Amino acid sequence: MTFETEWRRRFERFAESYQDDYQISGWSEEGLTARLAVFTAAYERAMPATSCRVLDLGCGPGTYGRWLCDRGDHVVGLDYSWPSLKQAQGKDGTRRNRPAYTQGEAYRLPFRAGVFDVVLCVGVLQTLSDERQALAELTRVLKPRGLLIVDALNARGLSTLVQQLSRKGGGRVVRYSPLGLRRLVRGLGYPHPHFVPVVILPKPMGRLYPLAWRAGIFALPLAHSFFLIAQREA
Fold it and tell me: How far apart are CA 40 and CA 205, in angstroms?
């Protein structure tokens, strides 16, 4: 079984076994809470206008897509796991503005070039064997001056170092050097990418995320993962 096939089957099994968004997505509850809190704050700063056309690649149960729709964006959620898409559709209920869902692969997106204002990619890079091909495909469907937002596990973070020293945890995932990923996206036509670190706090401290964000204490060396945010060149 290949690395990518193993992950695909894992996500299908998660969606068939669980109901909570964090379990379907393969995160801990604290991990999803942290990512969503950091993402929403960063997105509001980077994209204050609403009614953007957004691709949510690896949408899973639709956590990010529902938030984007609530703020007025138009979202297409794409995932290769059909059970995850069924979960997302079931969670949308009767809301008027909801994501449109479709099944597909990161390497071969079923969209014409230059149709999205924003491409969001969370929890996907860690499961891929060819991140450059996937990022090139994301770039293809993004408009000139469109916004790319990808999350990646931090190969230079404290949590990774602890796992390496203890020889515990981590599993079969791909981690990224922030500088290495920055070089890659620059080569694809994003001249000024920047990072937004994600630090996982214990559940009782979750209410501190907004305060910590404003205080700017989430340093990259302490981050479990990070969002890379970059505007495509014109």
Answer: 18
pLDDT tens profile 115-133: 999 999 999 999 999 999 9
Domain assignments of the chain as residue spans, ordered by start: 3-231
List all residues 6 or more positions away from 51 whose beta carbon is below 8 Å from its beta carbon.
72, 73, 74
17 CB-near residues (< 8 Å, 6+ apart): 23
Distance between CA atoms of residues 160 and 167, nearest Å: 10
To 5 degrees, how large is the angle CA 149–CA 101–CA 141? 45
Alpha helix segments (H runs only) across the chain: 3-17, 21-25, 29-46, 63-70, 82-92, 131-141, 158-166, 178-187, 209-215
- The yes/no answer on whether domain 3-231 falls in CATH 3.30.240.20 is no
Which tens digit of pLDDT belongs to each residue from 160-210? 555 554 444 445 789 999 999 999 999 999 999 999 988 876 666 656 655
Q: Is the pTM of this model over 0.70?
A: yes
